[in-house]
Write a structure and sequence with these properties.
The structure is a single chain. By secondary structure, the chain is α/β, with parallel strands linked by helices. It contains four helices and 40 strands. The strands form six sheets. It has a twelve-stranded mixed sheet with strand order 8-11-14-17-20-25-28-31-34-37-39-40. Strands 9-12-15-18-21-26-29-32-35-38 form a ten-stranded parallel sheet, with no helix packed on it. The longest helix is centred in the last third of the chain and has 25 residues.
């Protein structure tokens, strides 16, 4: 990656303040960026680093005016939204890092599998019978694609991803290392002798277009039908999605959240880290659930905000916490009066 400030400004739809021929070849954090680096200033709390770092180019807001002299040789690229502009730059940089198309000599591809144009199939990849890989998709080392799996175009699977039989992945999806899609749901029926009989999980998992799934997630196949992640969802690392769960469009879920079987999550929900959601529940569209909450009943109010265990509306949770603190203070006062 090597560009001039002028070329960068064209990419980011910005303007150059300084040397348009300044050349950058790498990305850097604003606290430590050195010569040849481009960095960005989106949060003004970090402005002090603009004057102390050695970045060659800094992406800033159009209205940014330095409060002191900039370091010698620093050029500014002024844009409408620095954070969004830098996301565009990161995407462009990520595209540079993509592997060359082709199938590595150590990959095992079943003769009945179909691989689209422009795909990059890495070392140790296994693609089983009947699988279809869409154009320009990339499978990094040791990815496993099961029987009759369908993968759309422009998708990226990092090392060790497992997509098991009959699952469907849409277009422009990214799945990070170690995630398993289509493992058996946790289904067991109690027997008279106290043991458990395994309930076969015969369904699949469907992940629609433009979804991002973090590392080491598990998405279980449905008992019947499909476990579904709708378009535009973003899942962090270490998330468990149980059998027959449905997650609505553009919902975002933070790390270590677990969702039990047959629960339906609405669209555009925001779910914090380490949230536990019980089975057979319904979560309304636009729900916001704070980290470490436990959801044991359906949340049916659209755009509601919840916190606590059990999860309750945020105002009720705050009143509960205030009352609890008052109770604790009262008890401590009683103890002091006794002594």
């Amino acid at each position: 990656m090597e560009q001039t400030a002028a070329e960068l400004a064209v990419l980011l739809e910005g303007s150059v303040s300084g040397n348009p021929e300044a050349r950058i070849r790498k990305l850097g954090k604003i606290e430590s960026a050195g010569p040849g680096s481009v960095t960005f200033l989106a949060n003004m709390e970090y402005e002090k680093f603009v004057y102390s770092c050695n970045a060659t180019v800094v992406v800033v807001d159009r209205e940014f005016k330095p409060k002191q002299d900039l370091p010698s040789g620093m050029t500014l690229v002024k844009v409408e939204d620095p954070y969004r502009a830098f996301a565009t730059l990161l995407e462009a940089y990520d595209n540079i890092l993509k592997r060359d198309e082709g199938v590595h000599s150590s990959a095992i591809v079943h003769p009945d599998a179909i691989i689209g144009k422009g795909c990059a199939i890495g070392p140790g990849v296994v693609i089983d019978k009947g699988a279809v890989i869409g154009d320009r998709s990339e499978l990094r080392a040791n990815v496993y694609i099961g029987r009759d799996v369908t993968i759309g175009f422009d998708s990226m699977f990092f090392s060790g991803v497992r997509i098991l039989d009959r699952c469907i992945i849409g277009n422009s999806c990214t799945i990070q290392a170690g995630t398993i899609v289509g493992s058996d749901g946790f289904g067991f029926a109690p027997k008279d002798d106290g043991s458990y009989a395994k309930v076969p999980q015969t369904g699949n998992v469907i992940i629609e277009d433009n979804c991002d799934i973090g590392a080491l997630c598990t998405l279980d196949r449905a008992t019947l039908g499909s476990t579904i992640v709708r378009k535009g969802c973003k899942l962090d690392n270490l998330i468990q999605i149980a059998h027959n769960v449905v997650i609505g469009e553009k919902t975002v879920i933070a790390a270590q959240t677990g969702i039990a079987g047959s629960t339906t999550i609405g669209s555009q929900c925001l779910i914090g880290g380490q949230v536990g959601i019980g089975g057979h529940l319904k979560i309304a569209n636009g729900s916001r659930i704070a980290a470490k909450s436990g959801v044991s009943a359906s949340l049916l109010t659209t755009n509601g905000t919840y916190q606590g265990n059990p999860a309750m509306p945020i105002k009720a949770f705050q009143r509960f916490q205030i009352a609890l603190r008052k109770l604790v203070r009262a008890e401590r006062t009683k103890e002091k009066q006794k002594t």
